[in-house]
Design brief:
There is one protein chain. This protein has 127 residues and is mostly helical. It has one domain. Helix content is 64%, strand content 3%. The protein has four helices and two strands. A two-stranded antiparallel sheet has the order 1-2. Helix 1 runs antiparallel to helix 4. The longest helix has 40 residues.
């Protein structure tokens, strides 16, 4: 039996699962907001994501926001019927939703690609 040394009392430790606290690493990653290079990389990623969001919003504004102007400039379209439904109702009530889904899909795919490119760039900077 292994008995503790009375001159070196140890604190009892209860192990209930994996450790929850992580010990701070002695090596800091080179890409950090506090470093000049890290700040530049992060600003670049944020700028690219902002450009993507602005592009998607612009596409939405042009495609959906211009419909009232089109109906105003071409009043005949307002009274047109497609499959027994007025064209404005069909465009704004039905066909807008697939457009929104498509724009959302494009946004998510490109945002993920931007993040993958950023991660690849950071991994390259680590080497």
């Amino acid at each position: 039996m292994n008995t503790p040394d009375p001159g070196n009392p140890r604190e009892r430790v209860r192990v209930t699962g994996p450790p929850r606290r992580r010990t701070p690493s002695a090596v800091r990653p080179p890409i950090d907001t506090e470093t000049r290079l890290g700040g530049m990389y992060l600003r670049s990623l944020l700028r690219e994501q902002l450009r993507l969001a602005a592009g998607v919003l612009l596409a939405l504004a042009v495609l959906v926001g211009s419909l009232p102007l089109v109906f105003h400039l071409a009043p005949g379209l307002s009274s047109a019927q497609v499959l027994g439904l007025p064209l404005p109702w069909l465009l704004l009530g039905v066909l807008v939703y697939p457009l929104l889904l498509g724009l959302g899909w494009v946004f998510v795919r490109r945002a993920e690609r931007n993040e993958r490119d950023f991660a690849d760039l950071v991994r390259g900077a680590d080497r």
